[in-house]
Amino acid sequence: xxxxxxxxxxxxxxxxxxxxxxxxxxxxxxxxxxxxxxxxxxxxxxxxxxxxxxxxxxxxxxxxxxxxxxxxxxxxxxxxxxxxxxxxxxxxxxxxxxxxxxxxxxxxxxxxxxxxxxxxxxxxxxxxxxxxxxxxxxxxxxxxxxxxxxxxxxxxxxxxxxxxxxxxxxxxxxxxxxxxxxxxxxxxxxxxxxxxxxxxxxxxxxxxxxxxxxxxxxxxxxxxxxxxxxxxxxxxxxxxxxxxxxxxxxxxxxxxxxxxxxxxxxxxxxxxxxxxxxxxxxxxxxxxxxxxxxxxxxxxxxxxxxxxxxxxxxxxxxxxxxxxxxxxxxxxxxxxxxxxxxxxxxxxxxxxxxxxxxxxxxxxxxxxxxxxxxxxxxxxxxxxxxxxxxxxxxxxxxxxxxxxxxxxxxxxxxxxxxxxxxxxxxxxxxxxxxxxxxxxxxxxxxxxxxxxxxxxxxxxxxxxxxxxxxxxxxxxxxxxxxxxxxxxxxxxxxxxxxxxxxxxxxxxxxxxxxxxxxxxxxxxxxxxxxxxxxxxxxxxxxxxxxxxxxxxxxxxxxxxxxxxxxxxxxxxxxxxxxxxxxxxxxxxxxxxxxxxxxxxxxxxxxxxxxxxxxxxxxxxxxxxxxxxxxxxxxxxxxxxxxxxxxxxxxxxxxxxxxxxxxxxxxxxxxxxxxxxxxxxxxxxxxxxxxxxxxxxxxxxxxxxxxxxxxxxxxxxxxxxxxxxxxxxxxxxxxxxxxxxxxxxxxxxxxxxxxxxxxxxxxxxxxxxxxxxxxxxxxxxxxxxxxxxxxxxxxxxxxxxxxxxxxxxxxxxxxxxxxxxxxxxxxxx
Length: 828
Fold this sequence. Notes:
The chain has 34 helices and ten strands. It is mainly alpha-helical. A six-stranded mixed beta sheet has the order 1-3-4-5-2-6, with helices on both faces. Strands 7-8 form a two-stranded antiparallel ribbon. Strands 9-10 form a two-stranded antiparallel sheet. The protein is elongated, with a radius of gyration of 32 Å. The N terminus is likely disordered.
């Protein structure tokens, strides 16, 4: 007996929280638990102002109103969200949706192609020949390996008692096909002479009676989405019942959850989807049965599941690709595909090597996801195109956004797609023609807390996060008419994220940026020319030439800032992904050579990403060049001109990003040995960068998406310093000189602590210093090494700025008094 796959296809029988909108606070807002003890308790203030150094502050700044306007512009454009938080959100989304990049179709073994066996690929509407039979062996395979559900037994009972016809209502990807066949097998006992047959989906009830001729004991008709079902008459039903009774046969009609059945009086059974993990285990158990099991039984499969299957899944569970697939099984077909793959790898007769299995899983899953993407994009009828496709794409790009965001964005994309389909036509549809759930079958919705007051939002989450990239690939590569609408829609999403999605702008920007990077992987020149270049050259409205109100300037400046940031993300993905690395790096180098500050600032932001992990020397050189230019720009004109953002802020953000990406020693050397020896603008940028780095928390592991701990990353690095990867050659020692670095850090920190004309920066410096000291001296988190490092830092601060001696002494006195009170159990 030839063993077939009993569960493939539909034959299955058996925050991230939404972010707050920009609130006008700076991205380096001080923590709320600590500050300068000399500030009488108000040292927890919002944010440092990132104001430029100036010999005559009043002369540079002008009047108070002008200064306030610039501070508000800066806070709106670059504040409102710590860079490391957005970086973490992006890393989580990228890791979750990672899948091998492919171009075109992936060629696999024959058993993954559409074959004569429906067990390998579920039949879809319009596929297959009329009256296609299912062999007894195939049905027996289903009965042995299926995951039985209550709806299957209920369906069999209905067939026995309800005039031989029953409807099974459910989604087409949740195993209803297997349940229907098993129920028919229970009541009809198929044989070689009288098997079960599949009827072509286009066959209406009025013509179905002509197909019942006594050669089959049961019939299966998939009428999902077929309009004729609701138009069938009672006469058609009565005639069909009579013929079925005459030939002792039964019929199951599959319908979708929201299909209209009109006046047809047929009993309906709601399908219960089988447990996907159970489908995987039982299908795998079936494939792993010993060759001598010529006529296997359910007991044989049960034995395999209890023994060999469990051991195999434990063994392959260490492979990342398998673990990820198991975590995100979307359907019984998904489970069946993985089961078939694992069984084949096991039956090769040699030990399963993790790296080989990882590669094979990536290959097969990519092909499976591409098939799923095509199915989602093709499943809609012409009456619902391109609306259905717009919802499919929007939900994939905006994975993790609120349902309201997805709906609004999908409508915008549908409008653009419709213009591409019917440029001269009018887009018409019935408002209630298609339920929302029908268009969002590839996602789940979750209720998540999105506010401090306990408010919740409905969040859209892809069932298979890896589908995001594959779906974007398929749209771009296989539907040329959708290219321009998709690109323009993504651009609009990013440009208008703050104005149109004020409660979800972070996720919208992240999703749009990831999708644009995906398109650039395929067509770099088009995306670079039509998206990246225009955004990189955007100018701020603070030149004074634009006739804009203050609020309009803030809004436009915000667009400039976040569009540059999305460009940096796109370039980062291209460089880290590797397929367009050289072209992306060349683009950054071109921007760095321009006289216009806007593209230079954009390039600096891009260098301050994980590009630093791949190209540390290039990044170090670019940031050093940007630091040197700061004083040149400051000497030439007002540093708050429209050509760039406030001086040093972008450079400071880039240094912080490079440090967080792993370029730690080189970033600190840039700040302590080079930037501090330059002019006032570069020095202040170094101070800002240091405080941003000092505020970073260390990750719990090397994974870029690993959660952050409470340990200050810089303090932890100073405790166990090491050179960055690839920087050992050419250095005098194998480890950094921590004392030299600590002294340089103290010099920069002292500038902020002693600053008189920027209270925000001063309060920030005291706040971070207090957090470091509290962490180092806490019995729960501290260590002798941390305490020693803090003592050295405080000593260097006294030496760096004589005026700080009394303030440091007072700080230590207050700190020790509070610690003593807490140790004595008083309130202090």
